[in-house]
Design brief:
single chain; 4-stranded antiparallel sheet; mainly beta; 152 residues; 2 helices
Length: 152
């Protein structure tokens, strides 16, 4: 199930690699319908032969008899934001994920400012676009599906 989505994202890029050891899987009932969705955060490295990586989140839903990808969202990467995906919290319709973003002095390897990325969960567990006005200056136009909130 998961490898088909990874292959779709990689496309025909011979340099793109999928290091599965960086996957983080979660099971959570996003929309309160009593059925668990599967969330996976994963990495694709080396698009175009470069020294880069991109992080993605896929939401899988089960509809008899198969699991299918209901949402695929880019969630950072080298030079953007770092989302590991090891911690996920759901409060009402807000899904929060631990992240880090870059300070002006940070190297490309190591963003240092802890934050939460927040997704609004819509009908059927879909992730809906949401950017709070309060934090719009932090996110610019790059984070169309979620709000980045600095941690205190």
């Amino acid at each position: 199930m998961h490898f088909a989505e990874v292959a779709r994202i990689r496309g025909n890029d011979q340099w793109a690699d999928y290091p599965s050891q960086f996957d983080h899987w979660h099971q959570i009932d996003l929309d309160g319908d009593g059925q668990v969705e599967r969330l996976v955060f994963f990495t694709i490295e080396g698009f175009g032969g470069g020294n880069s990586y991109s992080r993605f989140l896929i939401v899988y839903r089960y509809v008899e008899p198969v699991w299918f990808a209901s949402d695929v969202v880019g969630v950072g990467g080298k030079g953007d934001y770092q989302v590991i995906g090891d911690e996920v919290r759901l409060s009402g319709r807000m899904l929060s994920v631990g992240a880090k973003f870059y300070d002006d002095e940070d190297g490309m390897c190591c963003p240092s400012i802890p934050a939460d990325i927040q997704f609004t969960v819509g009908p059927g567990g879909r992730l809906e676009p949401y950017i709070s006005d309060e934090h719009a200056e932090l996110v610019g136009n790059r984070l169309a599906y979620y709000t980045l909130t600095p941690r205190e």
